[in-house]
Design brief:
Helix content: 40-55%
Radius of gyration: 25 Å
CATH architecture of the largest domain: 3-Layer(aba) Sandwich
Shape: globular
Order of helices and strands: HHEHEHHHEHEHHHEHHEEEE
CATH class of the largest domain: Alpha Beta
Length: about 325
């Protein structure tokens, strides 16, 4: 039996040891506990149809492997749908018309949720990650579980219960990333796949939030993300910089100060809390670069109760 596998002393046995021996025992216990702390990281992506989420997952994998020395795997939830849902079995992306391919994936996912519960796709991803951990244990027989620098990127969740399960299971090592593109960019991406306007409208409507309880609820899921990434105008280098900045925050490997936008949003959020009336807890920060010139938890009259984000010479964050 290895030393780490020895049973801990009972209180009476511990009390009979000398102070120096007690100190050694406590040091060993601390080392055992430290060794069980996981270096794993779980990232789940969520975004509306037409947003290039796959590009984000690929760039995350590249950065994690090359900058942070993490063994990274991408788990595609659509693969589980194609494996298990009758409507999606046997589909090939290269031979199946794009509209039918996406429609059958949506309907196949809905069928799985209706039969097994709304969190079934996340459950299958958790099962995959648990299996990998058990396989690692078998490879290291006699050593127990060892912490490994491994990251799983889940591409992508579409339902609030899928997100909730991941947060319950993985807690502090899980981060949800909401990926966003404007409607114009999303429609252009879908048109590039030879979809007709009516087909694009149908898919966008179904993806954002279906009325059935076991359907896709991207709008509700997206707003619960921990980190938001907008893809509209980023070059590859800018995208990598934003993702790398986020990961440095996660790992605490660099001192990262808030951006001007983050500071303004923080001040708008703090202004919202100044009112005890729930209906008035909507804050705004008015900024004339580089400083914030006004904060308010009420609608600014000059805005005519609208929500413009920019007008000369001010910027408004709310």
């Amino acid at each position: 039996m290895t030393e780490s596998a020895k049973p801990l002393l009972q209180p009476a046995e511990f009390a009979s040891e000398s102070p120096s021996e007690q100190s050694d025992i406590m040091r060993k216990i601390a080392e055992i506990i430290k060794d069980t702390h996981s270096e794993e990281l779980i990232l789940s992506l969520c975004g509306f149809i037409g947003t290039d989420i796959h590009k984000v997952s690929r760039r995350l994998k590249h950065i994690l492997e090359n900058t942070f020395a993490y063994n990274t795997k991408i788990i595609s939830l659509s693969d589980y749908i194609k494996e298990r849902a009758e409507k999606a079995k046997g589909m090939n992306k290269d031979t199946t018309p794009c509209y039918d391919y996406i429609r059958r994936l949506i309907e196949g996912g809905n069928d799985l949720r209706m039969e097994y519960g709304n969190s079934i796709l996340s459950e299958l991803a958790v099962q995959k990650m648990a299996f990998d951990r058990l396989r690692d244990k078998e490879e290291d027989k006699g050593k127990g579980y060892r912490t490994r620098r491994r990251c799983y990127i889940i591409d992508s969740i579409k339902n609030t219960e899928e997100l909730e399960l991941l947060r319950i299971v993985y807690r502090d090592i899980h981060y949800a990333i909401g990926v966003f593109s404007s409607m114009e960019i999303r429609r252009a991406n879908l048109k590039g796949k030879q979809l007709k306007e009516a087909q694009i409208d149908t898919l966008i409507d179904r993806d954002s939030g279906e009325e059935i309880t076991h359907g896709q609820k991207v709008r509700e899921t997206f707003t619960q993300s921990d980190f938001f990434l907008r893809l509209d105008s980023y070059s590859m280098e800018e995208l990598d910089n934003r993702l790398e900045r986020f990961l440095h925050l996660v790992f605490s490997t660099k001192v990262v100060t808030p951006t001007v936008e983050e500071t303004a949003m923080y001040q708008a959020s703090s202004a919202a809390g100044n009112s005890a009336c729930l209906s008035r807890q909507v804050g705004a920060a008015l900024r004339r670069p580089p400083e914030v010139v006004r904060r308010s938890n009420r609608t600014l009259r000059k805005l005519n109760r609208k929500r413009p984000y920019r007008w000369k010479p001010f910027l408004c964050w709310n």
